Amino acid sequence: MNIEQARFNMVEQQIRPWNVLDTSVLELLSVVKREAFVPAAFQALAFADIEIPLGHGQCMLAPRLEARMLQDLAIQPQETVLEIGAGSGYMAALMAQRAHRVVSLELVPELASMARTNLRNAGIQNAEVRQGDGAAASPAEGQYDVIVLSGSVTEVPQSLLDLLKVGGRLAGIVGDEPVMRATFVTRVSATEFTTRKPWDCNAPRLQNFPEPSRFQF
Question: Which band of pLDDT confidence, cut at 50, 70 and 90, is reported for residue 210?
């Protein structure tokens, strides 16, 4: 496989047509080598428009989804990011190139170890992976400028919104199959939040987040 041609095709055929037009994001996809974060058994699929299995019921999200979320978040160099669901560490690696610091929580110990190794091998020093339950994240370390859910939830819990600084943004994929929406919540004051849901997508569930019943009695 010609890796650079495959990377070029990924950008031009998957990512750019998905309205990812920010040149700094597109360039970042060449800086952070996606193939270095893909399990060896799936190297041939590193640039495919699919979710790549990581084991333990988890996966890497499709490249276009990660790129679009990165673009729409517009992370700034002084910002601190909390990621829920480290997976292989790829999204943390992308965000670390733009942010001051990234803290990524991963529930599965084996995946947390994989993500740490991948980030270390990529020479990324401002992203930290912690083994822990993102659904139970607490404000012990303070608040964040950006929170990213690298997976889907039925609804965004208030406990995560409380971890946002005023002016901070949360991004996640919210809803139930077959229709989920990319959801961006901005904290505009201590008590007020605004929400926008600009595009449709689908992603596997993050573990341990509540699944409210659709039925009311």
Answer: confident
Q: Is there a domain that residue 208 lies in?
A: no
Contact 79, 132 (CB under 8 A): no
Quote the CA–CA distance of 23 and 27 in Å, as a whole number: 6
How many other C-beta atoms are found inside a 10 Å radius of the C-beta of residue 102?
30
pLDDT at 119 over 90: yes
Q: Are 181 and 202 in contact (CB under 8 A)?
A: no
209 domain-assigned:
no
Buried b (16+ CB within 10 A) or exposed e, 134-172: bbebeeeeeebbbbbbbbbbbebeeebeebbeeebbbbb
Supply the pLDDT for residue 216: 52
Instruction: Give a yes or no: residue 207 inside a domain.
Output: no
Query: Which whole number is the average pLDDT over 40-60?
Result: 94
Q: Which of 37, 39, 155, 38 is nearest to 96 (CA)?
A: 37
Q: Which two tokens stand for residue 71?
A: 């673009």
212 domain-assigned: no
pLDDT in tens, 16-31: 999 999 999 999 999 9
Q: pTM of the prediction? A: 0.94
Tokens linked to 123: 């020479």
The total domain count for the chain is 1
Report the CATH number that the domain containing residue 125 is assigned in CATH.
3.40.50.150
- Domain of residue 162: give its range: 3-201
